[in-house]
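Protocol step 4 of 5: obtain the predicted structure for the target chain.
Materials: sequence only (see below). No template structures provided, no constraints applied. The aim of this step is simply to have a reference model before the mutagenesis design in step 5. Sequence pasted as it appears in the construct record:
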Amino acid sequence: MIRLAVRCRPGQAEAVLAELTVLSPGGVEESAGEGFVEYAIYGAEGELPDIGDLEVATGDGLVEVVASQVADDWAERWREFHRPVEVTAGEGTDSGGGTSLWLRPPWEPRRPDAFEVVIDPGQAFGTGAHPTTRLSLGLLLDLHDRGGASGPLTDLGTGSAVLAIAAAKLGWGPVTGFDHEAAAIEAAIENAGFNSVDIDLRRLDLRNGLPGLAPTVVANLTAPLLEVVAAQMTTAGRPRRLICSGLLESERGRVEDAFAGSGMSPAGFRAMEGWGGLLLEAAAA
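Step 4 output (structure tokens):
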């Protein structure tokens, strides 16, 4: 078995992932390091895309492509890699406490003392362990603990639907999730079933226009795509609260500036491993 790892710059991560899921629709493993995001795919020799195809697909975002042999017991090791993650209100700050959320793969035991989200890591588009997802979850938990977990919620770039599922379990509803990738919507539907939650999941390219936005919106997207969303948002169609992640900590200013034109002001910021999570709120009418 061969592991083929593609490293790219964080700002290009969304575009690289989109291309990789076309070349490897069976699933992509995601991790991050200092200054890069890594996507890995697994397969027998002859089953994986050519390195040249990967280099073309990733374009200017490419840092490197590394192929390595994986031990025969790779399936069991793969399970060991995906461990449960606990997220609490205040994630990304020095102050912890508050409501906890337990992210786990299906084979790990339940935590009856916490909200839990079950995600199959065999699916593409993330398991919830990435800092940007954890920051978004932490901000959702903060809103929950302040009594704000109610009413409709929109998840832009839902991926495996971690945020949408968590929102539904915390009390928001109805919850709607949008993603450009058909494979992401398929994974999201399956994960919603694992968690016995009702989420309206739809395929949509945000570059071609925004859907109707709920009063609460979460958007775990790269900074360039957040700017695309901001450019299409009007004062009349803006949400009351918007949680943004997927941006680098250094990109905070450009994202805040992008949403300022529609009257959205920063109300909180968290950072983790170089990534940022931003809460924006609409100015009072």
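Step 4 remarks: The longest helix spans residues 131-145. The first strand starts at residue 2 and ends at 8.
Proceed to step 5.
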